[in-house]
Amino acid sequence: MMGRSLSGRASGSLVALCLCVLPVLAHGYTYTVFNSNGEILKNQAIGNPTVWPPGQTDPLDMTLNFRGDFLDSALSALQEWNDVGTPLQWRAGVVRAETCGDDGVNSAGFQLVTCENRKFGDAIAVTNRTYKQFAPGGAWYLVEADIAIDDNRSWSAQCSGAISGGPCPNINDNDFRRVFLHELGHALGLDHPDEASPPQSVTAIMNSRTSDIEFLQDDDKAGVALLYSLQGGAPIIGGAPISDGGGSGGGGAWSPLALLLCMAGLGGALRQR
Amino acid sequence: MSRLRSLLLGLALFALGVTGASALSVVERSFDELVELADHVVVGTVEGLEGRLGTTSAGRQYVTTRVSLTQLDVVKGTNPGDSYVLEVAGGVAGGVAQVYPGLPEFKLGERYVLFIRGNRQDFFPVVGIQQGLFKVEPDNGRSVVRNADDQPVLGIQQGRVIAGVPAAGVAPLSLEAFLGAVRVRLPVQVEETQP
User: Fold this and answer.
1) Which residues pair with B99 in a beta bridge?
2) Do A131 and B99 touch (CB under 8 A)?
3) Which is more confident, B151 or A198?
4) Three-class secondary structure assignment of A3-63
5) Residue A235 has pLDDT above 60, yes or no
6) Of A114, A131, A207, which is closest to B97 when you measure between CB atoms?
7) pLDDT band, very low/low/confident/very high, at B188 (cuts 50, 70, 90)
8) Residue B14: how many CB atoms within 10 A of its CB?
9) For chain B, how many structural domains are there in total?
10) Domain assignment present for B190
């Protein structure tokens, strides 16, 4: 009797866990949240992401200060994010802009120093996201993203695939396309899944750890889809449009494994009755 | 006992697949390099965080955060006195917020071990960015260190930091042992003698 009661309780707990926790754990992607105190919380898996203004349906221009194969790689990286199909689409900017100009123009390029006129140190590429409030005390929004690639290092436009047609010609070269694809994810508002607390274990171009991933993975696509809902219009979190300011969110879709676990738990609970 | 610890650490390394905190857009640094490349290795507590708005010569506005460290224990480098101010990119000032994904964040009141290089020259003056930042936390009456991903440091093996969930029988490395690992890697100071 006691065992049955405990088992039933355990099944009930599992169902509760399914309802409350698993939707959050089913993804790895993370993003930045400004809480109601205006504090910046990076690498968040829950809460309302602070992103480009809601309802932005015009393409988002990014001036690409690259040439030749590097420009081709950059354009293909833009397209790869666009192919996810969210309403927020990149467009190669036609406005001439310095990579680090304080001009409200998103831009990317090779730089000898970062946009603050500092050395890169051990970073090889840096994305700088600028946020502002449209009204005092109102919500913060992403208003500009600049990507600076360290020009002191050696780069290949792409170390495999269609553009270079093979491995990096120089073993010490950095793979520009892979790094730029990652940095574009930052420019959209995504952070590193493996730097969440607790770290998420997913396969993603957005992970901070070195890997041989060259293209967007399911988790990367799910992340940007959450930030800029596939339904169009304002980003949608947990079925409700994002409101200005803080508040709770709870992103994440149900994974097949999570559903299976929940169904097993639910079945166990029903059998106890 | 130390052989057993090494074996357990080796197993932990294998199980965790930990090969160091390398990052996609950051140069991977070994522990030996953290020590070698740092101008200063300090243990300090964050007493203040102040965002400042600056302007480059090209007229671009940018935000930096001044991280004031006190209660210093200087393991490498010249002693800066009672406090040390680290200047890192990003923060909030003058109605502007700038975020650099991947840069670790400092929290008021927290204590850190930092492998500092290029303060006021590099945009984030820590060797290996997140790889050269460790948090100090109490643990059963002693201090232990965690990496920037908040994982306990279990040991230093083959010149690399091993971090992760401790297996049975493996305790997180104490702060003293961690700093000891730094000190044994410092170049030996040869005292000059008068002829």
Assistant:
1) A129
2) yes
3) B151
4) HHHHHHHHHHHHHHHHHHCHHHHCCCCCEEEECCCCCEEEEECCCCCCCCCCCCCCCEEEE
5) no
6) A131
7) confident
8) 9
9) 1
10) no
CB contact under 8 A, A117 and B102: no
Show Cβ contacts of residue B95 under 8 Å, excluding neighbours closer than 6 positions: A132, A133
User: What is the pLDDT, as a whole number, of residue B181?
Assistant: 97
- Selected residue of A42, A106, A122, A132 to mutate for chain B interface (largest B Cβ count, 10 A): A122
Res. A237 pLDDT band, cuts 50 70 90: very low
CA-based nearest distance B194→chain A, Å:
40
Smallest Cα distance from A87 to chain B, Å:
23
Domain ranges of chain A: 1-26+254-273, 31-249
Reported ipTM: the value is: 0.83
Q: Which two tokens stand for residue A121?
A: 């140190």
In a domain, residue B110? The reply is yes
Top residue of B28, B99, B114 to mutate, by most chain A CBs within 10 Å, is: B99
Strand intervals (E) in chain A: 31-34, 40-44, 60-65, 90-92, 107-111, 125-133, 140-150, 155-156, 174-175, 236-237, 240-241
Q: How far apart are CA B157 and CA A168, in angstroms?
A: 31
Fold of A31-249: Collagenase (Catalytic Domain) (3.40.390)
Parent domain of B152: 2-183
Considering the entire predicted model, what is its pTM? 0.79
**Mind listing the pLDDT tens digit for each residue in A87-123?**
889 999 877 777 776 667 899 999 999 988 899 999 9
> Which pLDDT tens digit goes with each residue over B8-26?
545 444 444 333 333 358 9
Residue B194 located in a structural domain: no
